[in-house]
Amino acid sequence: MSNLSKNNNKKITCKKNNGGPKARWIYKVLVLTFGLSVFFSFISETLMDKLNLILSFFILSCIVFIGIIFDIIGIAVTSAEETPFHAMAAHKIPGGKEGVRLIRNADIVSNFCNDVIGDISGIISGAAGASIVAKIINGKNDVPEIIISTLIAGTISTITVGGKALGKSLAIKKSKEIVYKVAYIFHFLKKRFGIELFPQKSGK
After folding, report:
1. Tens of pLDDT, residues 141-181
2. How far does Cα 182 stand from its chain's mean position?
3. Which of 28, 41, 86, 163 could form a disulfide with 68 if both were Cys (CB 3.0 to 4.6 A apart)?
4. How far is Cα 41 from Cα 130, in angstroms, rounded to an integer?
């Protein structure tokens, strides 16, 4: 067999090995998205019904803030370089190995942070905003419902888009620092609770 044929066979094998975990992740992310959406939607709507207007706005702010934070993490992981974390791992600095794994799984991390959490945050914040509109209307406010709902929806969109726009710049400039903080949290979870979020060997 020629060298060209051997190289082609190696490429095909690599594609098969790399495609398996990614394909499984797609199925997992669908189930995960559905589960998290149902769970957080139920929790937020249940809380919104029992809380007053001020606390409802606080919960809404937390939901939007979570979406922005995870968006920053997703972008930072895709922007960061492996080299500094290899050096950290070589010197046995806590979080070094986890940082390498985060960057090597950047596509999965980005998909989870930017798409899964980001979309869920957007859906739940919209539902929370509708709940706040209902509370204001039930308070017999003289302002028409369409004006209240439009203002709240506009405010949520402005804060979300503006926060993510500022966050993207921060994530790119401070990618190493952000990834390290996340990696250190992963290291703490593994050290303290034995939780391994990324396998040591690829393909598992």
Report:
1. 667 778 888 999 999 999 999 999 999 999 999 999 999 99
2. 12
3. 163
4. 12
